[in-house]
Amino acid sequence: MATPVITPEAIAEAARPTALRARRRMSAGSVAAQVFMLAAAILWVTPVVFALYVSLRPEDETTRLGYVSIAHKLTFSNFTDAWSQSDMWRFFLNSVWITLPAVIVTLLLASAVAFVVSRLSFRFNIALLILFTAGNLLPQQVIITPLYRLYLQIHLPHALASSGLLYDSRLGLIVINVSFQLGFCVFVLSNYMKTIPTDIDEAALVDGASLFMRFWRIVLPLCRPALAALATLLTTWIYNDFFWAITLISTGNKRPITSALANLQGQFVSNQNMIAAAALMAAVPTLIVYILLQKQFIAGLALGSSKG
Asked: Which of 82, 113, 201, 297 is in the most buried spot, having the most CB atoms within 10 Å?
């Protein structure tokens, strides 16, 4: 009996059905992924678009026809009224004075701790990293009662807090935001610093660089993408914080923009169009930060994707 001859054409013909099935599965998976992302994008954008639609409508028209109706007139008067009647510029400045120092201090402390636990070898570096990371597992609401009492007991100079206490001061919000964001930043930066070759440290030691010089002039500049990504996230999280701002600040003109919107709702409870306009204006700074740091943020999200 003659032995059949296996040719490249025969192998290709036999493998064609398998390749077609694999291509069809990939095509079906790609279509399903695109449909899912399109549906998620629509669900994500719809509330923002509806808020913009409501903010552009006059209050009397919305009251007469309802929110879900065709607008006969669009105007920017709600934006101008929200800005002038609620002193939003003051609350914007409050948010800046809280967010900017909190982001800077968090990144400085987190980068220093991450450098120690990732670039130095000592007995408790893993335990120290676990300790900082475990802080993210603690719900904020759990410690609100003892923290509130603690803030009432800590006295500050009047130059730092007009109330004389850590409670009802911008410094109090900066401290609590730094405390709760520090663990996540240490975790991210330590993982990134581990990908930096140790040969750099050895070369710096040969050149006589001190520990601080190795951190400040060598490792920290190499972490710029990670720092930019974290700066974008921290700005968004701290700026949009509502829980601590409404709990640890009692004076209305000291509150940041997010908690000030609650005051606006209480004062203009019937004018939801103005509240929608104020909420959209409050979201502008975080959008500007993301646009300015977009390239660095995307690069930071891809950290380690091509490194072994």
From this structure: 82
